[in-house]
Structure formats: structure tokens, C-alpha cells
Design brief:
The protein has about 100 residues and is α+β, with helices and mostly antiparallel strands. It has helices at about 5-15, 30-40, 85-95, and strands at about 45, 55-60, 65-70, 75-80.
Length: about 100
């Protein structure tokens, strides 16, 4: 299973299919840890530090970095202390919420 499919299952099963509520899945880091493990194929949403184009949500030295990367260059970066805040920014800016 890939990260996109896993996230879709969680949104459908826990949030009634409402993607705008995705941040509710990040009250703790359990879902985030699962996404890291499942992030092996790359895609538009990334949870590991890699060279894939797209949006990234990466834990780094006790913070959460959210950035957009294209052709190996990081074009935007925001840093958050709390996972839930980082997830809200990540899923909104990436276009996941509203898709």
C-alpha cells in the first residue's frame, strides 16, 4: 500500500471522506509514522527526505519542515514546532485539501 491509498482509507474510515478534516488524523504522531514507513515509491506528497519533486513533510531536529521541492531545489520552506500545525499547512498548500 502506498501513502496516498493509506491516507484515503483513513480519511474515508475516520473522517467520513471529508479531506478538509485531514489534520484531525495528526493529534499524535502515529499516522505520520505510518506514512513514513509507507513512503517508498515517491509521489506528490512525501514524508521522507528525498529528491522527489513535490511537497514534503519531514521531521528534522525536533521540528517539522514543510517544503516544496522541484528538480532537487527547495523552493519554499516553513518550519513548525507541532505536527498538527505542519500537517494543516502541508495538506492545504499541496492542494490535497480541496482535491
Amino acid at each position: 500500500m502506498d501513502t496516498h491509498r493509506y491516507l484515503e482509507i483513513l480519511v474515508n474510515n475516520r473522517l467520513g471522506g471529508d479531506k478538509s478534516r485531514v489534520v484531525e488524523l495528526f493529534d499524535d504522531d502515529e499516522v505520520y509514522r505510518d506514512l513514513i514507513v509507507l513512503d517508498v515509491t515517491g509521489g506528490w506528497l512525501n514524508y521522507k527526505n528525498n529528491l522527489n519533486d513535490g511537497w514534503h513533510l519531514i521531521e528534522h531536529f525536533g521540528f517539522y519542515d514543510v517544503y516544496y521541492q522541484e528538480r532537487g531545489a527547495i523552493l519554499e520552506r516553513s518550519r513548525f514546532e507541532k505536527l498538527k500545525e505542519a500537517a494543516a499547512f502541508f495538506y492545504t498548500e499541496s492542494g490535497y485539501v480541496g482535491s
